[in-house]
Amino acid sequence: MKKEISPLLKWAGGKRQLLSKLKEVVPKNFNTYFEPFLGGGALLFDLQPEKAVIADINPQLINLYIQVKNHPQELIEEVGELNFRLCDAERYYLLREKYNAKIQMNVFNVESAALFLWLNKYCFNGLYRVNNEGKFNVPWNKECSKKVLDEYNLIKMSDYLNHADVEVLCEDFSSSCIKAKAGDFIYFDPPYAPLPKNRNETFTKYSSDGFSVENQEKLAKLASDFAEKGVFVVLSNHDSSFVRDLYATFTIREVEARRAINRDGKGRKEEELIISSGK
Q: Which of 41, 53, 114, 233 is close enough to 277 for a disulfide, judged by CB 3.0 to 4.6 Å?
């Protein structure tokens, strides 16, 4: 029997609010589940498939899930130590600097994961953004104290990752799902294509090299190729003529989502698309 598991992170484009709509197009039966843009993993942890390949290009994000899987108690202790003291501007920027030093040195351990998680809760809107040097540069959200971690939830997540056949990869979207075959299911949730009216304000830069229009086109071609091979494919993206043209041969459903990650922090409603290879 599945235990309810919630995402650990607040993540740009997170799918918790769209789960019911996404599950309407999830195949009833499939072999291996693939999710190449993992992020907070809302759909993964809701479905809890018996066999999965999950991936993201962000190495520190993937390190978090590896530490959750392999060292849950140590991670709980590290986060507890970080959150024992109240947060202020000095403490936030000191720990951000410490985290960036680990990024620069490619250090992937429990402390890196704890800092990643702590910063996610105390940074502005839970945004993950890096500069041209690959350094995390999101400012403090001015909160002094908040709950960073639900320990019981983390333990349930760790149990799932250990008892199911889950492969965790730090790879790009094309290589991480290369083994998918007929009867498998891939959910692609890429950084969204920018909308014409706010092209300069969309937060699509989750890694230092971003996600370009060419990447969107490459992803659409990959999705089409997999669909032709009998892999069931579901994608999500902005509702735009560009995206609709890319997936003209797919089934497209319109949904409404409220996004809180923007400059004024008040949230906005956006029209999004759930795109699937099924009817």
A: 233
State the distance between the two ends of the chain, measured CA to CA, in whole angstroms. Answer: 29
The answer to whether 85 and 69 are in contact (CB under 8 A) is no
SS (H, E, C) 78-146: HHHHHCCCCCCHHHHHHHHHHHHHHHHCCCCCHHHHHHHHHHHHHEHHHCCCECCCCCECCCECCCCCC
Q: What is the largest CA-CA distance in the chain?
A: 54
The model carries a pTM of: 0.90
Q: How many residues does the chain have?
A: 279
- Taking only the tens place, the pLDDT of each residue in 93-126 is 999 999 999 999 999 999 999 999 999 999 998 8
Q: In whole angstroms, what is the distance from residue 206 CA to residue 39 CA?
A: 10
Spatial contact of 30 and 185, defined as CB atoms under 8 Å apart: yes
DSSP, collapsed to helix, strand or coil, labels residue 166 as strand
DSSP label at 17?
Answer: G
Q: Alpha-carbon distance 168 to 38, whole Å?
A: 10
